[in-house]
């Protein structure tokens, strides 16, 4: 490959990009908009669950239990009910997602040491939130029960029994379990995959549609020189998006960065090249800009969003889907980003994922050159 020819193609593509305002908007504005939109809107944390209480006991003991719920950051007390109809109406209007029903004789049964059943009614139409809210409710109730048991034991004897087993939880890498710390790195991978592939998916198809490809074919340009030259301006745009995204993740979304920054930048550039090469390959295979852009969206957005482990854990997927995820480049970059951002792991741990990205990019680039030569012929 000759640098002069690549430079000439890159200059031509730069002029086209800066003359086409839509390309600049697509390349710069849309990634930033997606990053901030999803970064703030997409969260898996469940806080301030609207809670309604039907306190049939009306005693200090029952109010103490209610205060455990209202005093936590997980629940927000929205009101009191006097029967199940009020609870049903509140859940139907989405004024409450959960209701706690405290039975009559609550305090008397506790004092007598008899078991008490406190009912939790939860809106199951949002199953994920309902499951998480139930877990919080069980945790608060268990803490309240332990306090009652210890108090009763203290009154009965001076020697407090020690529980045979106690759990000491310790969360590594994301101590506060903030979902944004896991979402933002994955979001960077998904956005870069979609935007980079979409930008380059129009390059070669546009030449065929506008009839300028024949002029390029008549020049001494080789297929590899043409593809590399066309990738240069989009690589610069993608690199700008990448740097802004990494800075936004660190300084706006406050995602901790524990890994090596040079390794992060190097792997991000490698992934960007893989996505750009995939877009060029789609552009060569596609017969028009519309078909190429549609195919690029389907081939990148859905796999990157659904099968990369960004939202849904790969280990929970059926085995055939788990096998398919190995052919999704975003899967490896999501793993790399989370490893670098949260765990602070290095090259020895991430070598396999980086090697796959390199092999995948080389394979796609070779297929693009091969396919382009066939079309010239």
TrEMBL record:
Domain ABC transmembrane type-2 stretches: 130-375
Keywords: Cell membrane, Membrane, Transmembrane, Transmembrane helix, Transport
Record-level Gene Ontology MF annotations: ABC-type transporter activity
GO CC annotation, single: plasma membrane
Compartment annotation: Cell membrane
Positions of transmembrane segments: 21-42, 182-205, 231-253, 265-286, 295-315, 347-370
Record InterPro entries: ABC-2_transporter_component, ABC2_TM, ABC2_TM_bact-type
Signal peptide: none
Any Pfam family matching the protein: ABC2_membrane_3
Membrane topology term: Multi-pass membrane protein
Family membership noted in the UniProt record: Belongs to the ABC-2 integral membrane protein family.
Name used for this protein in its record: Membrane protein
Taxonomic lineage from the root: Bacteria, Pseudomonadati, Thermodesulfobacteriota, Desulfuromonadia, Geobacterales
């Amino acid at each position: 490959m000759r640098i002069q020819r690549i430079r000439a193609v890159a200059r031509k593509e730069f002029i086209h990009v800066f003359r086409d305002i839509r390309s600049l908007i697509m390349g710069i504005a849309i990634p930033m908009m997606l990053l901030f939109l999803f970064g703030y809107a997409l969260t898996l944390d469940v806080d301030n669950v609207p809670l309604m209480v039907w306190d049939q006991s009306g005693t200090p003991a029952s109010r103490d239990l209610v205060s455990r719920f209202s005093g936590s950051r997980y629940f927000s007390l929205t009101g009191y009910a006097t029967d199940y109809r009020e609870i049903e109406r509140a859940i139907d209007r989405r004024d409450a997602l959960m209701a706690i029903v405290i039975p009559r004789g609550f305090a008397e049964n506790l004092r007598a040491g008899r078991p008490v059943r406190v009912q939790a009614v939860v809106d199951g139409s949002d199953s994920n939130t309902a499951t998480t809210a139930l877990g919080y409710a069980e945790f608060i109730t268990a803490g309240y029960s332990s306090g009652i048991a210890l108090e009763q034991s203290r009154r009965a004897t001076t020697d407090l029994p020690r529980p045979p087993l106690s759990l000491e939880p310790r969360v590594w890498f994301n101590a506060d379990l903030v979902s944004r710390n896991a979402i933002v790195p994955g979001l960077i991978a998904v956005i870069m995959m979609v935007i980079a592939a979409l930008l380059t998916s129009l390059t070669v198809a546009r030449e065929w549609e506008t009839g300028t490809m024949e002029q390029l074919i008549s020049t001494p340009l080789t297929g590899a020189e043409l593809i590399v030259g066309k990738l240069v301006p989009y690589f610069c745009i993608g690199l700008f998006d990448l740097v802004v995204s990494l800075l936004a993740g660190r300084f706006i979304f406050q995602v901790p960065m524990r890994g090596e920054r040079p390794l992060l930048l190097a792997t991000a550039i490698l992934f960007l090249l893989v996505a750009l090469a995939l877009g060029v390959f789609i552009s060569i295979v596609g017969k028009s800009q519309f078909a190429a852009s549609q195919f690029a969206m389907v081939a990148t957005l859905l796999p990157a969003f659904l099968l990369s482990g960004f939202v849904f854990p790969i280990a929970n997927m059926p085995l055939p889907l788990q096998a398919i995820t190995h052919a999704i480049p975003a899967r490896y970059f999501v793993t790399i980003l989370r490893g670098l951002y949260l765990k602070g792991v290095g090259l020895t741990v991430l070598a396999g994922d980086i090697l796959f990205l390199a092999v995948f990019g080389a394979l796609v680039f070779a297929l693009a050159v091969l396919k382009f030569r066939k079309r010239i012929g």
